[in-house]
Amino acid sequence: MLEHRHDVVVAGGGPTGLAVALGCAQAGLDVVVCEKRPGVIDKACGEGLMPGAVRALGALGIDPPGHPINGITYRQGSTVARAAFRTGPGRGVRRTALHNALRSAVERHGVPILTTTITHVSQRSDHVRADELRARYLVAADGLHSTVRELAGLTKVTTARSAHVPRWGLRRHYALAPSTDTVEVTWAAHSEAYVTPVGPHTIGVAILSSVRGGFTQQLAAFPDLAARIADAEPLTSVRGAGPFRQQTSSRVAGRILLVGDAAGYVDALTGEGLAVSLATAAELVRCIRMNRPTDYERAWKRASRRSRWLTEGLLWARRQPSLARHIVPTAARTPWLFASAIDQLAR
């Protein structure tokens, strides 16, 4: 009996991996997903979908429930800067709701989701093996600390001299009605707090920081926010993620392609990570359909360039004490500049 060969094996069943699988299935490709965690998967993230992410999901036929987001608000002490989205609304969506919507769509298309972990890969001229599976292509969508990226030799080793200060994230939900239809970002000396409306009576609070510590300890840097949620009922336990920065030497190694956080990650500072992941997932599917995997590296760079440049620039300013304290005041003094930056991120 001839061994069955899939068109695509996707390692990782998070939103990006499922988006790739759904795109492949809609294109008529034989695809299978490998994800060791069964059911709906939660993850620490800001949960604010930029307008570009909402449109990308819509192109896949996905319309997850959530709360409209119409812009971004920056706060630092009494200084406030607001910018509205120019290209349509975003949406605050619980990670579990997003994952459930994508997983349900993938299952409706008959895509198998195997509860297995890929521990070995090898390649030939016309196929790749992922443990016992054989396919024309293997897609690594297995997150920040990607196993497949490591197996493919695509993890870029950072020297101590060039290493960046690592940053981590924590997130928790509270039973509290949103006070605004924007994502509120409050800036402190070494961290930022993101408040995202994800339902009519639910907000998500995420804290990104270069200083390690528990949620309560991190929240102390934001006294106004701490007071606001002091009497609110916590709806979820604290989840963490990081360190954020992950560097890769390439997004392509033969028939292995990287996407999402596995493809390299700068920081969650600007909040458009999922939008970029969905855009690059669509490019990956296009390259696979054309049997042109080498085109994907250039397509990934093109689709992610704006985000990478803006995030690197803002993160660099964040690390300069003399500049960091002026980020929000500058945004408030030059609303046209702030609105332009937000418009670039929202696309």
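[next item in queue]
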Amino acid sequence: MTDERYSISQVSRCFGVPISTLRYYDELGLLPSAGRKGNVRLYGPAELRRLALIQRLHHRGLVSLADTAALICEAPADDRPTGRDVLGASIETIKGRIEDLRAAQHLLEHMLTCPRADPVRDCTELRVELDQAVEDGLGALDV
């Protein structure tokens, strides 16, 4: 990678991020520019790598924007969790999402192969799952 600098509009286009988002990241201290040429923010290789990291962490839904800040900002705030805490919590969240997706996949695969003519309305397994969801939902009223 060269030491070339890229304008905010070039970075916006190349990374698929609105200019307003890049400005917001700068305001938050997540992605300060490497400098300016007149009023135009410029970004160098280090800033582009940092943006790529932000995209991998936040845009892919791995961690919140606040947690992204906790991971990559040089001076962590006292009220932020540590980077390792963020990573551990994110892993647990992802594990939960994976379990949910596996359950959804199982249900869809069952409905696809269900011998009933109309599995959405007549599938016994689906009806049991829906009855449980209704019971769980109404159970929250008792709290």
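[queue empty]
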